[in-house]
Amino acid sequence: xxxxxxxxxxxxxxxxxxxxxxxxxxxxxxxxxxxxxxxxxxxxxxxxxxxxxxxxxxxxxxxxxxxxxxxxxxxxxxxxxxxxxxxxxxxxxxxxxxxxxxxxxxxxxxxxxxx
Amino acid sequence: xxxxxxxxxxxxxxxxxxxxxxxxxxxxxxxxxxxxxxxxxxxxxxxxxxxxxxxxxxxxxxxxxxxxxxxxxxxxxxxxxxxxxxxxxxxxxxxxxxxxxxxxxxxxxxxxxxxxxxxxxxxxxxxxxxxxxxxxxxxxxxxxxxxxxxxxxxxxxxxxxxxxxxxxxxxxxxxxxxxxxxxxxxxxxxxxxxxxxxxxxxxxxxxxxxxxxxxxxxxxxxxxxxxxxxxxxxxxxxxxxxxxxxxxxxxxxxxxxxxxxxxxxxxxxxxxxxxxxxxxxxxxxxxxxxxxxxxxxxxxxxxxxxxxxxxxxxxxxxxxxxxxxxxxxxxxxxxxxxxxxxxxxxxxxxxxxxxxxxxxxxxxxxxxxxxxxxxxxxxxxxxxxxxxxxxxx
Lengths: 115, 393
Prior knowledge:
The complex is a heterodimer.
Chain A (H helix, E strand, L loop, with lengths): L1 H6 L2 H12 L4 E4 L3 H12 L6 E3 L8 E3 L2 E4 L12 E4 L5 H10 L7 E2 L5
Parallel strand pairs in A: 1-2, 1-5, 2-4, 5-6
Antiparallel strand pairs in A: 3-4
Helix pairs in contact in A: 2-3
Chain B lengths: L13 E5 L8 H10 L4 E6 L9 E8 L4 H12 L3 H10 L1 E3 L3 H4 L4 E4 L15 E5 L11 H18 L5 E4 L2 H11 L4 E2 L6 H4 L14 E8 L6 H10 L4 E8 L3 H12 L4 E4 L7 H5 L4 E5 L13 H8 L3 E5 L2 H10 L2 E4 L5 H9 L3 H14 L5 H17 L1
Parallel strand pairs in B: 1-2, 1-5, 2-3, 5-6, 6-7, 7-8, 9-10, 9-12, 10-11, 12-13, 13-14
Antiparallel strand pairs in B: 3-4
Helix pairs in contact in B: 3-5, 8-13
């Protein structure tokens, strides 16, 4: 993984995983800087994003960049053939834990761990 | 270069304030927004990715991250001075929803970061570039910055500053540096606090001989802020003094180091930061504000930081070292103890230990008087007079 991280960017890694796994729907979890970067990259590749989530929307959902941002309870909708991209560098552990809380397990998650 | 004067307020205009950071972290754009939003339609473009309350943040900036390999390639390009290519690559990585058609609707566009300037070439006549730093000298104490980043900033100054006629900066020293190196004129607009925040300070009360004399330093926990020296100073001060460090965790690992050092020193306390709007109110309960900017390699000698004027607004006696700009202010208004260059720790401790309560009160009294003129509103109208004058040329 470290060799991968040296040569390619996270956004390319996400695109490559999507290319390989062909998920039915893509959930972006994290609407901060990395979430914006991933969203922008997927837009350029004409890959639609089904849903954008962020913990900040747990209190109240909001709109950003013309897109609605939902709270993490939306993770309950993740189905078998879906993919959740965790868009964070520093909060990965808590976000993975939140996904597990919502019964979304690691095989549906895409993220770069800090190891 | 005293450019401050009372001029005309701008009203009913569409203003854009653009900066590459989050709104809460940036005092200077924040002050400008608070002042202009009273009578104008103000929008911000920043690194905020959710709606802010009471602030129209319709536009954002974000930078796509490179892999380490890609960064290595860029570093090689910098080393071989392919700077045009590097700047082009950097711009291609900037993600924003701000485009030329959106820019046309604004009457005034304040740009607070050099890295963003290229985005505003199409409206250069409406732009006021606020250089909060002397960019090529920002972190020259760090080798990586000196070798790989300073050349890029230098190139950008050479290429972009001439395209924007209206430019302002934080101190006469920085303005002179831009003039000396790039032959570009900058209007000096210091970082005076808003009157509404300055007015929240506690009323003056004289020190009693039995009172503890409380010294405060507030700011980000950065390695170039001589915080280790401040902690060591706390150990050298006599028992009359207490030194409090109110630090923001800019670098979490460095902050932990600082915490460990403070734990081993009596007379020094670490405090959590307070919100921007409460800084002056909080620090006005102290007696002395201290700021050491002793690194001579970078821009410290020409700096006039926000916290300097926050200390003045709070009515504190000032102790500063390293910045000629701060030294000049202190001497001309008798605001405290200033050192033009680096000062040895023992000398500094000796000077502070020799202070009497009457001396400290006298400086505090001078500061209370001086603070009335060092407020944002006092010079803001002069800024707009300068801006409108530069547009009419």
